[in-house]
Amino acid sequence: MSRLKTIEPNEATGATKQLLDAVNDKFGMVPNLARTLANSPAALQGYLAFGEALEGGVLPAKLREQIALTVSQANGCGYCVAAHCAIGKSVGLSEDELTDARQSSSPNSRVDAALELARKLVEDRGWVTDEDLDRVRRAGHGDAEIVEIVAIVAWKTFANYFNHVAGTDVDFPEVVELATA
User: Fold this and answer.
1) 178 in any annotated domain
2) What are the pLDDT digits (tens) for 158-174?
3) Which domain holds residue 17?
4) Is residue 4 part of a domain?
5) pTM of full prediction above 0.70
6) pLDDT, mean of residues 135-141
7) Could you tell me the pLDDT band of residue 177, with boundaries at 50, 70 and 90?
8) How many domains does the chain contain in total?
């Protein structure tokens, strides 16, 4: 159960209504993350603007979703894992690709290097080594891709932490827990 109130789109007014209407227009629904973030229109606007800016970047949609899954899994955010599994499917990721991304891996070396960097950014709070950057560069990523990997990690970490605080009710299809070794 959510620990922060959710704003009902049909009861919203002003800037909050405009933002929630824009979310509904884009996704055909207003996810509980947006409804809860709407307690602060400034926070919701910032979150949405950051995501939209990344959509215009150099990383393709599939890789952005794989990174989002790696980050959300590493941060233990069930809401975002469920959301990005659903979004990942909609951009063409297979079940195997979704599971691999949650495990920070891919049989594709270019994707694998990006996911490994994302996981290390989460685990090491941004303090990656020269070797970490060399690995992602050897896999074919340039500085623009590295910057966007860091940006996605920051954007998703904000959502993950917010969901931890809010206790956001999951309104996406349930995903199976990963087996732990």
Assistant:
1) no
2) 999 999 999 999 999 99
3) 9-55
4) no
5) yes
6) 98
7) confident
8) 2
